[in-house]
Amino acid sequence: MLNLFYTIAFVFSLVCLFVLFTQFQNKVTVYYVMLFFAIMLTNFGYLLLTRSDNLEMALFSYQVLYLGASFIPFFFFMCLANLCKTKIHPWIQTGMIILGCFIFFLVCNYGVDNWGPFSIGHIYYKNIYIVKKYGVNFLQKDYGPLHTIYPLYLILTAISELVMIIRSFKAKLEVSVATGVTLLITMLFTIVFYIVEKLVVKIPLIPFSYFFTEIFLLFLLQRIKYYNVDVISKDFISIAEVNGFFMCDNKGSFLGSDEVARKWFPEIGELKIDKHIKHSLLKKSELLNQIDYWVHCGEISESKGNKKILISQVVDGQQKYFEVEHFWYVENKRRMLHFISIYDDTQDQLDRQYKDQINQQLEIDVKSKSNKMRQAQRDLLVGLASIIENRDSNTGGHVQRTSDVMKIFVRHLESTGKFPFLDNQTSSRIIRSAPMHDLGKVGVADIILKKPGKFTDEEYLEMQTHAEKGAKIVQKLLSHYEDDLFRKIAVNVAHFHHEKWNGKGYPSQLSGTDIPFEARVMALADVFDALVSKRVYKSRMSYDQAFEIIRKDSGSHFDPDLSVEFIQCREKLEALYNSYDDDFDKV
């Protein structure tokens, strides 16, 4: 039965070594590989020992066994030092290797007495006998004076590991204390088996401890491999421009960072390995909050991906800007590792800000010049409308008054919320287009335009042509105007402000909503001013009479919905006309 177990232990150690190579390649240091290799050699030595049928074969088996066992304490020690980010002085490493070699040398030279005046063949083992227990061959040994070296070596190594863990914890290094203690317990577990073997059962129990130790280490290495941030970061640095970096697992537990990241973001230095970053937020940290969001709210992907943000941070009294980019490592369709690269983007941001300032100033200058040009164009059109109005003996002050009416009416329509398309800019365009509604009168003969009385039918037909003429004039005057929508609205106002809701207007006999909205609005303002103003052929109407006509012609001349809203403006419109000079309607 024992023979079968030692065989299984050896085969299992081979399998574990294979798993380590295939699953953890480049993710753990060489010391873990050497540790598993040494355990495999030790188990192989025990297997050979159980199958030895003579002393010479048994001695060879022990030499194979010690080729691994002499260096296992050293590899354990270096694995823990790597995990604790503790630099071991080369002299200490060299000394431990020499001590392991010396122990192996003593085992290999058992019984050799040809060293001149020195006899070393019996100082580690005095005598060795091959015995059979439980149906399996073992060596019975009488220990020499130097045999205590190996157990002392184990004990001192374990004490050193304990001191290393305590110092790392006190120094607040990026160390997983829980994992470090677990490794130490694993080492102590092996020492306990060694002591029980020597003092109690008198048969090799070490393979038993190695069996459980390797199983535990493989599970532990699933996590330990992520603590070696220097190795892992190389995978990501090749695809990211990195000055500093930060790492955590898929649960948000902190795994490590580099010195640059800790300098730029001191809150990282307060984190402890294995602790959730959310539980470590002693201060409000934009960086850690963003990382926590990425870890728990980001979309899972089958491959490495990235998201970027820009974080502003004061470092050494200077304002700096950092580009923070998120990568992840996916294993077995699960996001196992989050890598946050931190790039100092300060100079680029300052350059961008300077360029933005220059561009903003240029934009302001261009906008100012454009505004001046647009204002000049508007002034030209209004001036032209005023000139035309001066030719018309019937409509003194009409341009200014209709513009004022349009401002009150259009802003009221906008405020009702009943016309979703009527935003602030569209309203402004309609208001600015009002002075141009009668520009076409420039093409009407003075004899008609200045006639001090009603028109004949022929004269009225000639007067009606001002709508089409006005549309062409506005289109031409605004042909180089950069605001296409304003040009369209102004043309529509000039062309269709005499159309009627029932289709009996001019020049195109449009009806209903086929008449552009802005023209329907202008029609109300135009007619209202004509009603309440004095003309050569009529007197002023009262406000009551004017609003009654608008109400009565709603649905025939005017858009019924707009008519209702226009009447709602009565108070403001009356106040407007009452504010004019008493002679505003003199012709």
Structure in words:
The chain is of the alpha+beta class. Helices cover 59% and strands 10% of the residues. It has helices at residues 2-23, 30-50, 55-69, 72-83, 90-108, 149-170, 177-201, 206-227, 229-237, 259-264, 266-269, 286-297, 346-391, 398-416, 424-433, 446-449, 457-464, 466-477, 484-496, 517-532, 543-552, 560-568, 570-579; strands at 125-133, 136-143, 244-249, 254-257, 307-315, 318-331, 334-344. The strands form 2 sheets. It has a 5-stranded antiparallel beta sheet, sandwiched between helices. The N and C termini lie far apart (128 Å).
> What's the mean pLDDT score?
78
Helical content band: 55-70%
Number of helices: 23
- Count of strand segments: 7
Assign an overall shape. rod-shaped
- Write down the Rg: 48 Å
Main sheet specs: 5 strands, antiparallel
Strand order of the largest sheet: 4-3-7-6-5
How would you name the oligomeric state of the polypeptide chains in this document?
single chain
Secondary structural class: alpha+beta
Kindly estimate the percentage of residues that lie in beta strands according to DSSP: 5-15%
Output the helix-strand order.
Answer: HHHHHEEHHHHEEHHHEEEHHHHHHHHHHH
- Model regions low in confidence, pLDDT < 50 over at least 5 residues: 391-395
Distance between the termini: 128 Å
